[in-house]
Structures are given as C-alpha cells and as structure tokens.
Design brief:
flat; 0% strand; mainly alpha; 113 residues
Amino acid sequence: MSRKLWHGWLFVFIFAVTPLSDTILFTAAAIAKVKAIRIVPPFFCAKLVSDAVMLVVARYAVASFTNRPHGAFPWKGIFTIVFSIVLIAGLLFLDGRALLQKKKFAFNFNIWK
C-alpha cells in the first residue's frame, strides 16, 4: 500500500467517524474525481465502528436509566440536560456571518424569517 493511499484512507476514516455530514466527503471526492475504491472501504469501516459505538453507548444509557432507584434523578443527568440545551441554543442563535466576516461574536435571536 502506498503512503499516499494510506494517508487518504486515514483521513476518510477519521472524517467518517465524526458526526460531520458525509455528503461533504463524497461531494469533494466527486469534484476531485477520486476513484471510489479510495473512498468506500475506509468509509464503510468507519461507519461500522461508529454504529457499534452508538449501540454500546445506547445500551449503557438504557441500562443506567432502568437500574436507577425509583424517584431518583442524578445531578449528572440534570447537568447534562441543562448543558446540552445551552449548547444547542448557543449554536442555534450564534450569528455565523458576523463571526466569520466581522470577527465579532454576536447572537441573532431573529432566526424565523
């Protein structure tokens, strides 16, 4: 296996494991006219690993939720819910145009046009 092919496969594997959109990867590969044999095997392996990790994490989450005492809700769960809502709201209302063009960190609460 050539060094160039190895680096390409590693990049595709790492990109496919992340939660980024796979459309970007295949669009860029199509524009660059990359052969499918250089994209599909590491993509398939990465998706296999990613799905296996999701299944294990989901099994753990369901087991930890069903094995808790009745009426108890751990503080870690409350913190995770609050942190997730704040993070999603921050990403939803962050003004990306002002951040990229003006280098200004601003929020835009008028998102429904």
